[in-house]
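Morning run. Coffee first, then this:
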Amino acid sequence: MVLLVDDEKCPATGLGRLRPNTLVLGFKTNWSDGHMRDVDIYINTIHDAFDLQFGVVILRLQDGLDISHIPGQDESSLEKPAGTVAKEMPVTVSVAKDSDSDSCPSKTTSLQNSPMISRDIKSPLSLRDQRLLDTSQQFRKKQGKGTIDVWWLFDDGGLTLLIPYLLTNKKKWGDCRIRVFIGGKINRIDHDRRAMATLLSRFRIDFSDINVLGDINTKPKKHNKLSFKELIEPYRLKEDDMEQAEAEHLKALEPWRISDNELELYRAKTNRQIRLNELLKEHSSSAKLIVMSLPLARKGTISSALYMCWLETLSRDLPPVLLVRGNHQSVLTFYS
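And here it is:
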């Protein structure tokens, strides 16, 4: 696996046949607060990655990843302790004349027009910013005992399994165990568990448990469906409330809007995202990290707003979530 990184920080990129093949993104936490044009760009970036046969990884932390608004959190200050803020301050200098001098008494000269002098001082952060800063640095600490829960719902070449395996080989994640969750049928749970255990053994991936979810296709709870309906309401096209020509014109101007036909056509897939979030909360609410198959949206068929609502619904109110979709080229090898 090769991640898409800055060429200046990874001079090996482009050496021989070594090239990036995985795009890593942060989840667009503030997507509902900004312009939907930005959401279109975000979703199209994912589509472009798949068109280039890249894998895609999206990391979501519930408090978000953006700490750029916190003073002093640029690249030059990443090593400073949390809560330390670098400020530029004018310096006021007191100049006192000798008592023998015939000049006026002591006076204060303010160097307001002098260049600003940078000083590191302790500046308290708000509780929200402090929590956000702590969250952004949580993977720099040793994780301790816990689990990495892998929800392997699609065979994408093995990237969803490879990432947790690589993490557990690092010191910071060495005390974490891998738990695997797969979908299955109630009358085949034991068979599916044995088949998955055999597959993981052949890939030499250590795991602590395999859970086969026979109720993965059960309808979601009514109140969660209502929550999803409220989420998509601002992005609906609502063509039944307008003339057909007006609806087509609005859809052409704002292609991200969700049409009634689209909503009905993908009702089953919508219900699946809602149901998966219910199961994630039930089984993985205490995991150190959740690694899960990223749902796909066909380009030009599913609107950006609906796809973003799927991702929001799937990953909300959970521990750190890593949504992963490989490029369907195998990254795992059997014993030779």
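The two ends are 20 Å apart (CA to CA). Good start to the day.
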